[in-house]
Automatic annotation (TrEMBL), chains A, B:
Protein's job: Digests double-stranded RNA. Involved in the processing of primary rRNA transcript to yield the immediate precursors to the large and small rRNAs (23S and 16S). Processes some mRNAs, and tRNAs when they are encoded in the rRNA operon. Processes pre-crRNA and tracrRNA of type II CRISPR loci if present in the organism.
Summary of subunit composition and partner proteins: Homodimer.
UniProt protein name: Ribonuclease 3
Highest taxon in the source lineage: Bacteria
Cofactor: Mg(2+)
One example GO MF annotation: metal ion binding
Origin species: Anseongella ginsenosidimutans
Encoding gene (name): rnc
Cellular compartments annotated: Cytoplasm
Matches recorded under PANTHER family: DICER-RELATED (PTHR14950), ENDORIBONUCLEASE DICER (PTHR14950:SF37)
Family (UniProt): Belongs to the ribonuclease III family.
Cellular component, GO, one term: cytoplasm
Keywords recorded for this protein, A-Z: Cytoplasm, Endonuclease, Hydrolase, Magnesium, Metal-binding, mRNA processing, Nuclease, RNA-binding, rRNA processing, rRNA-binding, tRNA processing
């Protein structure tokens, strides 16, 4: 074990924090400030420069990209005879915000995140807080170690214990029912509305929007009404964080 | 130099091909079949299994993800005081299809790509052929070597010689003028049309679509008409590969 790790784990005043992180990560973190930054929501960002607050948003940008690459490779190798459309869809089932929120919760990241709970802004309410911190954590691991370590963390600590890829493969997410169910539960009104249709016969393109309590939450365009509704509903689920 | 490289470079019947590739890559490729696959367009894909053709599309999926991660890191480090919105925008300036087509042309990949020029399908006409092969090449490098080698290739062989990031930073892509200029040049008619507006005052949301020769090519939604048009125009530029 490198000296810096021994220091972090046994001597540093942060040793409690280091032990918690080590349990999550599977290795002793070196540069603690990266991890602290990963768990700092923008509502408690430090003003570093005029117009610039230091929060986990930049690390989230980086982590999102690293996660995307690792999952791409994993699916590429797991499914040698599936085309890129399938791979893209499978990846978005894994890395969508709701799934990342769940994973973040399973890892217990909630306790580590610092945020201003008075500023009950939309992000916090919608709970993307957890998924954002999850991606930022991956960005932090990448900078603290390297690509191989991020890949190992994602594979061994996330995918193997928490993601059942074969089950995900079977689940066709039915966004329309998901949205309707959610609206019923929340006592909200949902309507799908045809905005326009263009072309004729098979080449007719439908443009549909979905309204929740008369407010538009998404649009979808496709050659069948059913698919256009599905796309609009998917967009609405994303915006509403359902 | 490993024996496999010596064999590929001096003995193999593919040695001419290996030399061309070595010039492009900056290293001697090991697994040639990966590179051959990267340059095989789907119009000449081999039937491997029922319903599955082996072409560069899967490698493109992988390469796109690796490229995204490498560019994310590069921008993250180059701009320590810029927020994730800026980083995302800069990345899309670098990895958009048109720019990748240009880079691919500069690397001379056009000569290596095999495709069926009789099947004048949309992809080939629109010229995304080059950018697709470029991404697939990065996927091939990743599988042939590793992440570090892909990163080195992208940094040393693409970014340093061919991308002027500071100039890109200054250029605000004006998609509306770009689209209008292109339509004038091609003798096509372009119209922006307000589909709907919702809400009141500052919270009024405009939904605009752009028609080229009466056919819809994109929609945009924003709180100002100008921005909604910009988004719609950007979408149309993407679809039309302008």
């Amino acid at each position: 074990m490198p000296i810096s790790s021994i220091y972090n784990l046994y001597i540093s005043s942060d040793k409690e924090y280091v032990r918690i992180l080590t349990n999550i990560l599977g290795f002793v973190p070196r540069n603690l400030s990266l991890y602290k930054l990963a768990f700092r929501h923008k509502s408690v960002g430090n003003h570093v420069k005029k117009g610039f607050k230091d929060s986990n948003e930049r690390l989230e940008f980086l982590g999102d990209a690293i996660l995307g690459a690792v999952i791409a490779e994993l699916l590429f190798k797991k499914y040698p005879f599936k085309d890129e459309g399938f791979l893209t869809e499978m990846r978005s089932k894994i890395v969508n915000r709701n799934h990342l929120n769940q994973l973040s919760r399973k890892l217990g990241l909630g306790h580590l995140i610092s945020y201003d709970n008075k500023s009950a802004n939309r992000t916090i309410q919608q709970g993307s807080l957890l998924g954002d911190a999850f991606e930022a954590l991956i960005g932090a691991i990448y900078l603290d170690k390297n690509y191989a370590a991020s890949r190992k963390f994602i594979t061994d600590r996330i995918v193997k214990p928490h993601i059942d890829i074969d089950t995900l493969e079977q689940t066709e997410t039915n966004y329309k029912s998901k949205l309707i169910e959610w609206c019923q539960r929340e006592g909200r009104d949902v309507t799908f509305e045809l905005i326009s249709e263009e072309g004729e016969g098979r080449a007719r393109l439908f443009n549909i929007r979905v309204l929740v309590d008369s407010e538009e939450y998404g649009q979808g365009q496709d050659y069948t009404k059913k698919n256009a509704e599905k796309i609009a509903a998917e967009r609405a689920c994303e915006v509403l964080n359902i």
